[in-house]
Amino acid sequence: MAKKSDKRRIIGLVCQACKQRHYYTTKNTMNSPDRVELAKYCPVKRVQAKQVETKKSLGRNEVKPRR
Ligand SMILES: [Zn+2]
After folding, report:
1. Residue 31 belongs to a domain with what CATH number?
2. Residue 8 has what pLDDT?
3. How do residues 35-63 score in pLDDT, each as one tens digit?
4. Model pTM?
């Protein structure tokens, strides 16, 4: 049986203005199965830019098996 926390994954947000990652957040994969886009501040360009979810694995979504 899946745990409650299995649906909420950590994602990285890639800035569309400078192609860097400024933010990390979580999303519910059940409620938002598509790629999420958020308008957030870019500290490099100093403007509000679109931040798109990256599919790159962050290695933190995997839970270590407990013995
Ligand atoms: Zn940026």
Report:
1. 2.20.28.120
2. 86
3. 999 999 999 999 999 999 987 655 555 55
4. 0.72
Q: One-letter amino acid identity for 22?
A: H
C-beta separation of 40 from 16 below 8 A:
no
What spacing in Å lies between the alpha carbon of 27 and ligand 1's midpoint? 20
Are the C-beta atoms of residues 27 and 13 closer than 8 Å to each other? no
Distance (Å) from CA 28 to ligand 1 centroid: 24
How many domains in the chain?
1
**Hey, what are 9's tokens?**
């994954």
Q: Ligand 1 center to residue 25 CA distance, Å?
A: 15
